[in-house]
Design goal:
alpha/beta, four-stranded parallel beta sheet, two-stranded antiparallel sheet
């Protein structure tokens, strides 16, 4: 059975920067029931409190943060890059430990966003980009989806299991 890394906030855990949560979604509940879910909030795992000031990456490019070219800054200008990098490394360790090839992470998060992010102005402007954790996992070969792509994630999981001859019953 394939394990899936899932953002804790999508499972209803109150770990978002504002102390909130999302979900749980029916599909995620089924994955939980099947024992597939490996839950992580990279920001909390990296040492940030809940609640915490909102943080963004200028230009929304988590890959540039991994390369040391950009910082993750809070709305107050505090550099929280080290915590974001530490959380991404913890996610990578879980991926390697559990052989994870699929992640479902929070859309537009500076850690977890997979297709777009906020531009760093704290004005709600979206740009193409990904969060720090999403960028690191993608570099490791993990397919990263958001809660807005549940159907696609479910399809890819079915393809992975078909290719390896496993199922939720295994």
């Amino acid at each position: 059975m394939h394990k899936i890394l899932v953002s804790r906030c999508l499972l209803g855990h109150r770990v978002r920067y504002d102390g909130g949560a999302h979900g749980p979604f029916d599909l995620l509940q089924r994955w939980l029931d099947e024992g597939r879910v490996v839950a992580l909030c990279p920001e909390v795992a990296g040492g940030l409190p809940t609640p915490r000031p909102p943080a963004e990456i200028r230009g929304g490019q988590g890959g540039a943060v991994l390369e040391g070219r950009l910082a993750v800054l809070t709305v107050d200008g505090e550099d929280v890059t080290a915590a974001f990098l530490a959380g991404a490394q913890q996610a990578l360790a879980l991926v390697r430990e559990h052989g994870i090839r699929l992640a479902l992470l929070k859309a537009r998060s500076p850690s977890c966003g997979n297709l777009e992010n906020y531009d760093g102005s704290f004005g709600g402007v979206r740009v193409p980009g990904e969060g720090v954790t999403a960028a690191l996992l993608r570099r490791e070969g993990v397919q990263v989806f958001s809660e807005e792509q549940l159907d696609e994630a479910q399809r890819v999981l079915a393809e992975l299991e078909s290719a390896t001859g496993t199922s939720s019953a295994d």
